[in-house]
Specification:
Number of strands: 10
Radius of gyration: 13 Å
Shape: globular
Helix content: under 10%
Length: 111
């Protein structure tokens, strides 16, 4: 059974950082592309489209967010630096191209 569980969200001030985690079970992240999306309309944020491939980012977060994968832990991460109020939203982990989503973790950036 495929499961994705996000964590690490919170309330921060502009300019601060958060690190989101996505714990995967039922499959190995090293075998799939993975992605992060934001909000109820699932706005693309970042992805690694193929195992061991480079990360790609939405223009609004490029240079501030870093996506990575830990194959040993079977987890995916999103390091979010220099956060801005417009980054606010629920962040969802996705096995790329699939209908598998986590429950989301809320990020709120507010002065």
């Amino acid at each position: 059974q495929v499961q994705l569980v996000e964590s690490g969200g919170g309330l921060v001030q502009p300019g601060e950082s958060l690190r989101l985690s996505c714990a995967a079970s039922g499959f190995l992240v090293k075998d799939y592309g993975m992605a992060w999306y934001r909000g109820k309309f699932r706005v693309f944020t970042a992805m690694i489209s193929r195992p061991s491939g480079p990360a790609e980012y939405a223009g609004a977060v490029k240079g501030r967010f870093t996506m990575s994968v830990d194959n040993d832990k079977n987890e995916v991460y999103l390091q979010m630096d220099n956060l801005k109020p417009e980054d606010t939203g629920a962040y969802y982990c996705n096995r790329l191209g699939s209908g598998y989503w986590g429950q989301g973790t809320q990020v709120t950036v507010s002065p």
